[in-house]
From TrEMBL:
This is TetR family transcriptional regulator. Residues 71-90 bind DNA. GO terms for molecular function: DNA binding. The keyword NAD does not apply. The lineage of its organism: Bacteria, Pseudomonadati, Pseudomonadota, Gammaproteobacteria, Oceanospirillales. It comes from the Bacteria. Keywords: DNA-binding.
């Protein structure tokens, strides 16, 4: 019936002849793949939420109990999940620890600015020290886990440092050498400079209990962290003989 109607009405296209309701259905039709998409997005969202919950809970438990004493059952209990759910995403405690450590290391790399050669050493070193203090303060558990992993010589962390941190350090070393050549600072060992900065800044997270005792405080305040930033910055700038 539709075909004969089309033939009878010369000069009109098939889309002009088809009823408006049918035309609307054709234009607004959703591909089959798109019909499934909301379900897939929901599953991905739930998966991401569960993984984030497990990782954040693991970070707290690892920092509190230590790497050796922590069990996946402890993590499951604190997260309010069945142990089987934890193992659904992470087959073993080792896999879970590596996921936590990778998250920590990526967080650290992403939260600290790269050196900008044009801005000079004073601004860059001041900003770097400030960001490291802020980072340690905001992520105390992460810093403690990283320290534990280093002390225990966890292979994952050591390999990560060799493969990524060494590359990062090489880039910053080239910038520092440029500043030295420009007479903006004295020649220094880049490796020892960064080791010293890491040690001074991370102690406010890794050994915050010691800091509290030394300052005779139950909790560290904003002013304590700011004072630490200024003190460490003065030491580093003076030690590197930074000009300006």
């Amino acid at each position: 019936m539709l075909f004969s109607s089309c033939v009878a009405q010369e000069g009109k296209s098939i889309l002009q002849i088809i009823s408006p309701l049918v035309l609307y259905s054709i234009n607004e039709a959703t591909p089959l793949t798109d019909v499934k998409r909301p379900k897939d997005q929901l599953k991905a969202h739930i998966r991401a939420q569960n993984q984030m919950l497990i990782l954040e809970t693991s970070e707290r438990v690892f920092a509190r109990q230590g790497l050796a004493k922590t069990t996946t059952q402890m993590i499951a209990d604190e997260a309010g999940l069945p142990k089987a759910n934890v193992h659904y995403y992470y087959r073993s405690k080792k896999d879970l620890l590596e996921a936590v450590l990778e998250r920590i290391l990526r967080l650290w790399l992403d939260s600290v600015s790269e050196f900008n050669a044009e801005e000079g050493p004073k601004l860059n070193l001041t900003r770097y020290i400030s960001e490291k203090i802020d980072q340690s303060r905001a992520n105390k558990n992460a810093s403690k886990i990283f320290a534990m992993a280093l002390i225990g010589e966890e292979a994952f962390v050591l390999d990560y440092l060799r493969n990524l941190f060494v590359t990062e350090l090489s880039r910053e070393k080239a910038t520092i050498q440029q500043w030295v050549a420009q007479g903006l600072m004295a020649p220094v060992s880049t490796e020892h400079l960064f080791i010293s900065i890491w040690a001074m800044t991370q102690t406010y997270a890794d050994f915050d209990a010691q800091v509290k005792i030394m300052l005779q405080k139950d909790e560290l305040e904003e002013s304590d962290y700011e004072e630490a930033k200024h003190f460490i910055t003065r030491m580093v700038l003076a030690g590197c003989d930074v000009k300006g």
